[in-house]
Specification:
- The chain is of the alpha/beta class and 141 residues long.
- The protein is built from six helices and six strands; from the N terminus they run H-E-H-E-E-H-E-H-E-E-H-H.
- The chain has helices spanning 6-9, 23-33, 52-60, 88-98, 118-125, 130-136, and strands spanning 16-17, 37-42, 45-51, 81-82, 102-106, 112-117.
- The strands form two sheets. The protein has a three-stranded mixed beta sheet with strand order 1-2-3. The protein has a three-stranded mixed beta sheet with strand order 4-5-6.
- The longest helix is centred in the first third of the chain and has 11 residues, at 23-33.
Length: 141
């Protein structure tokens, strides 16, 4: 049996936005790209990750103005990373241990090469589970 690696399931089309991007702009980008996260980068330096959930929980629920609040103000800076050759099971355990839904995939030089979500893993580890079926279903936008 071949062990599946992170490389097999990762998303390589990573969307980057600068930290001064407003929440409204970031949300529109997520909608247009049909994604749930953006990597925040200032120049070549990775600042962190912002998810659709971050926008709702850290900003909208706190009544921040999405038109003037920037993603730099709510960015998650403590990034959890994996390597492309790590097993999908080790990535799942890392997500569990850090209570995160996404991890960044970095090459040996710490360059970002992709992102893996809990949905990506669920569809591979247990495709017949409820989460696996939901993760493979078409979006309802």
């Amino acid at each position: 049996m071949t062990i599946q690696t992170v490389r097999d399931v990762m998303t390589t089309d990573v969307v980057y936005l600068p930290s001064e991007t407003t929440l409204a702009e970031a949300a529109r980008t997520m909608r247009e790209q049909d994604i749930g996260d953006v990597v925040v980068a200032d120049g070549t330096a990775l600042t962190g990750l912002v998810t659709d959930r971050d926008i709702v929980v850290r900003a909208v629920a706190e009544r921040f103005d999405p038109a003037s609040t920037t993603i730099g103000e709510i960015v998650s800076r403590n990034l959890v990373t994996v390597r492309p050759d790590d097993s999908i099971h080790s990535a799942a355990l890392l997500m569990r241990d850090h209570a995160v839904r996404r991890v960044l995939v970095c090459d040996p030089a710490q360059g970002l090469v992709g992102i893996v979500s809990i949905g990506d893993l669920a569809g591979e580890i247990d495709p017949d589970s409820v989460l696996g079926r939901i993760s493979r279903a078409s979006g309802n936008n």
